[in-house]
Amino acid sequence: MKKIFWLAGEHSGDLHASFVMKQLNETEQLLEHYGVGGYRMAQQGLKQLFPFKQFNVMGFTEVIKHLSFFRDVEKKIAKWFDDNKPDLVVLVDYPGLNLRIAKIAHQKKIKVFYYISPQVWAWKKGRVKLLKKYCDKVACILPFEQEYLEKNGVDATYVGNPIIEEIHVEDSREEFAKKYDLDVDKIWICFFPGSRELEVERLLPEYLHAAKVFDDDDIQYLFSLAPSVSRKEYMKIVSASGLRNPFIIYDDNYNMMQHSYVSCVTSGTATLEAGFLGNPFIIVYKTSPTTFFLGKTVVKLDYIGLPNLIMGKGIVPEFIQGDATGFNIYRALQEYVNQKDYYAKMKTQLDTLHEEVGEKRASVETANLIKEYLVETSILS
User: Fold this and answer.
1) Is the pLDDT of residue 105 over 70?
2) How far is CA 253 from CA 195, 237, 327, in A?
3) What are the domain boundaries of the chain?
């Protein structure tokens, strides 16, 4: 048996890595998987070395609070490498910790494969030197990343974006309406406050405020509740808003996006999913004042949303930090509802995302790269 050590510190990484593991398991029977991941990776055979929930933190100030935990993790992983030297380390996104683990693995002469490249083109550009020095192969998921990384001496390959194979819309509009007691003849405006507790605390009140300002009987307001968020705390915020008859939809984002008339989406992977499904939306982002201030000093981008970054222009409206207010969100959504030409133009622009992203299946391409690499290094016969 050959050992692969995996590290995916967030729910999105757990999902993406699980697809790759599934592809590997279907063709390679002599692999053992160890490391850090969530329940999806565990379903594919991951033997978890640490509690996954403790890794899911974000922002400068939030990470600082957990520094002692991460230092302890690094020490324990280094010791695990000594005691159970893996044949390959596969790091998934999560660059703050993963690049340090890449260095440790490299120093111990363990090969490193990085899936979902750190966004070095956006900030902390010095990390590209770490990728070049400590990583043997980098698989990137945004179409413009391969050229950027290769210009900086990194062995990189664009494998496609995971959303292409991960998005599954199972219900028709009528089936979705029946499932959640919705009126199929009404407009559905959907709100996605995020998968992290802090995102929900900051943005759900603004989203609820936006819906309350609408107060239109011809519209129904749907709010996504992620499995990683406390239902109790979520419902406290909803109750405090005073919004009449909100519809809380648990863990059903793709159906929501597909059948929404327009959506409000917290910045992150969900913005690309919404863009790929093609219904108009807006992008919202708010973090702590300290995190935002520090971020502005290092991130030099015209846009924050992935669809806008890929297209190189602001096709989707963005409301960031101080602009992320309930009333601003209401006005932006209202524009979609009231101006049919504006709505149609947005749908046309979103169609071009498919062409930019391409049709590669990221899990298949990545699993093949891993297998090819293992064969080249004589780990697999």
Assistant:
1) yes
2) 11, 20, 24
3) 2-160+360-376, 173-357
